[in-house]
TrEMBL record:
<keyword id="KW-0963">Cytoplasm</keyword>
<dbReference type="GO" id="GO:0008360">
    <property type="term" value="P:regulation of cell shape"/>
</dbReference>
<dbReference type="InterPro" id="IPR010119">
    <property type="entry name" value="Gluconeogen_factor"/>
</dbReference>
<dbReference type="Pfam" id="PF01933">
    <property type="entry name" value="CofD"/>
</dbReference>
<dbReference type="GO" id="GO:0043743">
    <property type="term" value="F:LPPG:FO 2-phospho-L-lactate transferase activity"/>
</dbReference>
<comment type="similarity">
    <text>Belongs to the gluconeogenesis factor family.</text>
</comment>
<dbReference type="InterPro" id="IPR038136">
    <property type="entry name" value="CofD-like_dom_sf"/>
</dbReference>
<dbReference type="GO" id="GO:0005737">
    <property type="term" value="C:cytoplasm"/>
</dbReference>
<protein>
    <recommendedName>
        <fullName>Putative gluconeogenesis factor</fullName>
    </recommendedName>
</protein>
<dbReference type="InterPro" id="IPR002882">
    <property type="entry name" value="CofD"/>
</dbReference>
<comment type="function">
    <text>Required for morphogenesis under gluconeogenic growth conditions.</text>
</comment>
Amino acid sequence: MTRISAKIPNGRTLRLRRRGTGRWGAQPKVVALGGGMGLSASLAALRRITGDLTAVVTVADDGGSSGRLRDELGVLPPGDLRKALAALCGDDDWGQTWAEVIQHRFVSKGELHDHAVGNLLIVALWEQLGDHVQALDLVGKLLGAQGRVLPMSAVPLELQALVRGHDQERPDEISTVCGQANVALTPGEVQQVHLDPHDPPAVPEVIEAILAADWVVLGPGSWFSSVIPHLLVPDLLDALNETRARKVLSLNLAPQPGETEGFSPQRHLDVLRRHAPKLAFDVVLADEDAVPDGDRLKQAARALGASVELAGVAAPDGSPRHDPELLAAAYDRIFRMHGRIGPWR
């Protein structure tokens, strides 16, 4: 068992325990679902406490470099997959060099402007190999990624949202807003989201990973465009309901402008439950400074079958981002305190 030390804001040293294999005991099998920077934050934390880690990534992005590649080549949007791979890179020179390389964006006056190197690499391997999973595994091997990255579906998806007040001159009118980029920045209040196609197939390896997991972590991330879409893939939702793994719902540090502006922590839980009313969780993790009403959050969590774990997981500089070491400590504590399922037990 390897011990990892980290400094936390009050000057104390935090010691995490990385579980090894063999005579030191098996590692927990963890599956993390999400997209964008929220999933990257979760992965950067989880790779510090387990090497048996699978990231499941949304594939509805239609903006920026990903959107351009998707429109031109008809491929899955690679951007969130790239970010997840970068988050799984090690802290050694090899890992950090490759993380910077795949995140590098070209600056030009031509067609390459704003394309990320990793996006082009992933799409090239998809075309060469004709297999999404095999190509991502190969990129992970090149990077020395400490875990596996999978798309939640093998077909590009469009996110559609019912939004109240999207037209600010008609604040009570419900409109349909299409596209993840548009939903994320909508000026109205998102009521519900759907996927097109409505019943996309899940990647088989995703289902296998969820059913074999000890823990499943959903969130943090853009609630309507990165977190809830996982619950709109029928086979994936069935696997989440059937798995013997314990489940953690990790909340954001602050509401997002547009998408969840004005949302309380408990409202995040309410809208998730509205999209997947039968899905239960074991733990809801939230930053202790982001919860003004702990009793109301506990009440909302109980409706999901969960208890609430409050912890200081925000970056010490005050920015709305998770500190990977503090978030790792919170996950490690949850995994140890709330029991273990399956072969890790």
